[in-house]
Amino acid sequence: VSFCTGGSSNYNADFKLFKLLYRWGTIIFSCFVCVGQVIFAMGAICNAFWLMEFGRFVFGIGGESLAVAQNTYAVSWFKGKELNLVFGLQLSMARIGSTVNMNIMGWLYWKVQDLFSSTGHTTLGIALLIGGTTCIFSLVCALILAYLDKRAEKILCKEQGKTGEVIKITDVKDFSLSLWLIFLICVCYYVAVFPFIGLGKVFFIEKFKFSSQAASAINSIVYVISAPMSPIFGILVDKVGRNIMWVICAVVGTLTSHLMLAFTFWNPWIAMCLLGVTYSLLACALWPMVAFVVPEHQLGTAYGFMQSIQNLGLAIIAIAAGMILDSRGYFFLEIFFSSCLCLALIAVVALYFVNLFRGGDLNWSARKREKLQKLAMAEKEI
């Protein structure tokens, strides 16, 4: 539900973040997340599934739009090669949260059960309420960010969201072919990662005869690896540049991982560790490229549209993956995921040649990009 909601709400959130003070957007979306989590937990306590669905609906409005606001902050505060590290750190923190959630919530449920000597929906609701305290922490961070951004605005004597251009929803029609290819890579890649992790535990139990605990451990290793590796890859891409080549390496590595899981009985830890590494690499190289191909006043729209398409793809593919799994089994599901990655590989190769023939800067070295940025700044000063 939250993916579907996010897909429709991001596009409404995108251009408003610059136009209507994105710091307020961050606070409002954080409030939606908090309220949605409380409703979700209360639905569990009351044993009302429809209320839980409504809670996820509200959560989705805030959660996915909050990601757009986060990206807007990032591209407003950091420029050029710094973006690779920033996006790596963002992914790292997100995956730390995912890993903690996957490994702590079950333990928390049993602790609540022992404390209240009860089982079932009431215990689940209380555990969800306790877990929801992280949403309050997110809201506090949004308030602190708003203060820091306001302070920086005064110190630097700039007006928030003023770029000399009018922000319009019709900016979408002006998006370049390179940007649309980036969108396609994003969708085709992530639909082969998140839905797989969602279904992965049973896959490892059925194919490799893992215990439930071992299956959970290997299924979460992708997030465990991405937490420390994302900032490392961010620094690496910052120093080297060549974003497109890194994306190609990430897609090929992820495709190799899925093929290993589909066609071999090799130790799956090898494939999953490879998936964790390549997943971290792709985010650090792909997401900053948006800032290289669109004007600053269109960044909110571009990132919002990218997030929206990604969530729409995840919502559709998650349903399709479940249907394939029920009717055909895990082997055909892995073939399906591999096909999605082949489309992503075709798109990134096409992006390479489009960028090459149009003289784009997506595959420049870090040294060349830094040199040209200094020349551009010198010309502005003159």
Automatic annotation (TrEMBL):
Transmembrane ranges, per UniProt, are 26-51, 122-148, 177-197, 217-237, 244-263, 269-293, 305-325, 331-354
Tell me the Pfam families matching this sequence: MFS_1
GO molecular function, one example? transmembrane transporter activity
Q: How does it sit in the membrane?
A: Multi-pass membrane protein
Enumerate the UniProt keywords alphabetically: Lysosome, Membrane, Transmembrane, Transmembrane helix, Transport
The record's catalysed reaction(s) read: L-arginyl-glycine(out) = L-arginyl-glycine(in); L-alpha-aminoacyl-L-histidine(out) = L-alpha-aminoacyl-L-histidine(in); L-histidyl-L-alpha-amino acid(out) = L-histidyl-L-alpha-amino acid(in); L-alanyl-L-lysine(out) = L-alanyl-L-lysine(in)
Look up the domain of life of the source. Eukaryota
A Gene Ontology term for the protein's cellular component: lysosomal membrane
Q: Where in the cell is it found?
A: Lysosome membrane
Quaternary structure and interacting proteins, as annotated: Homodimer. Interacts with lysosomal protein GLMP (via lumenal domain); the interaction starts while both proteins are still in the endoplasmic reticulum and is required for stabilization of MFSD1 in lysosomes but has no direct effect on its targeting to lysosomes or transporter activity.
Q: Which family does it belong to?
A: Belongs to the major facilitator superfamily.
Output the PANTHER family linked to this UniProt entry. MAJOR FACILITATOR SUPERFAMILY DOMAIN-CONTAINING PROTEIN 1 (PTHR23512:SF3)
**What does this chain do?**
Lysosomal dipeptide uniporter that selectively exports lysine, arginine or histidine-containing dipeptides with a net positive charge from the lysosome lumen into the cytosol. Could play a role in a specific type of protein O-glycosylation indirectly regulating macrophages migration and tissue invasion. Also essential for liver homeostasis.
Would you tell me the protein name for this molecule? Answer: Lysosomal dipeptide transporter MFSD1
Q: Which organism is it from?
A: Micrurus surinamensis
